[in-house]
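thought: user wants a sequence for this fold. calling inverse folding tool.
action: design(structure=
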């Protein structure tokens, strides 16, 4: 593993906030966050930012309240 890869892994977010669908167990949206669940909207691409804002607005309608969990790197 190169030093560049080690640095990239260390800089990668270690947590994600995940919105599970109320109606479809296989559907969810997740976004990188800090351990408290705060998402840096400025760092997200426009499409991901729009999806995050949509998921937040749809909590209780289409999505369950979000849960923060550790990210798995594959």
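)
observation: tool returned 74 residues.
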């Amino acid at each position: 593993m190169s030093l560049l890869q080690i640095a990239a892994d260390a800089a990668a977010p270690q947590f994600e906030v995940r919105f599970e669908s109320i109606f479809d167990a296989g559907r969810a949206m997740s976004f990188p966050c800090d351990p408290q669940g705060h998402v840096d909207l400025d760092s997200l691409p426009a499409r991901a930012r729009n999806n995050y804002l949509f998921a937040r607005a749809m909590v209780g309608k289409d999505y369950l309240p979000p849960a923060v969990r550790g990210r798995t790197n594959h």
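thought: summarizing for user.
answer: Here is the designed sequence. The chain has two helices and three strands.
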